Amino acid sequence: MSDTIALPNHEECIRLLEKYSTPLHIILHSEMVWEVGKVVAEGLSRNNYPVDIDLVRASCLLHDIGKYLCILEGRGYHDIRGQEILDSEGLPDIGRIVVQHVVLRGEKDRPLAEEHVLFYADKRVVHDEIVTLDDRFVYLEKTYGKTPEAIKRLNLMKEETLFLERRIFDVLDFMPMDVARLVLKPLQTALSGAP
Q: Which Gene3D superfamilies does the entry link to (predicted)?
């Protein structure tokens, strides 16, 4: 958790994305990853899992900060590039989480933390739409499953993500199918004018 540096607020995260030429569609994806991450992190906090919601917010919003640069250059891993960018910006606490949004590091059964929230939230969002894990992995296979090795890696990632989903929702007081409703509920309330 971040005790030594001030974490960027929401607007500062967006400005940082813009500084690195992040396209709007990636920013919108990151915003939705944050909305999912917020629901999960708040649920974990309610159930005595000490996740830093501000760190989750910054990590979710900045998780794809290296993606566009990797696309432009036609090489590299955007998770690693993101960590490098965040380290260079003096945000290593965020970088250590962002680098794990593609592949989690460490033991599978270690205590749930911010990196688990980001990893899971990112897997629940295609573009800027909340989807099931099955739908996300269909999309990933269509997009990235060009070789037998890539398909094998995606299948391992899916197993890891399903395992993590079970761990997270064993703790929470709602189910995976409730995430979209919980994300949209504040918006629906605001639009309806209800208190």
A: Hypothetical protein af1432
pTM, full prediction: 0.92
Q: How confident is the model at residue 2 (pLDDT cuts 50, 70, 90)?
A: very low
In order of their start, the domains of the chain are 10-179 (1.10.3210)
For residues 157 and 163, the answer to whether their CB atoms sit within 8 Å is no
Residue 1 pLDDT exceeds 50:
no
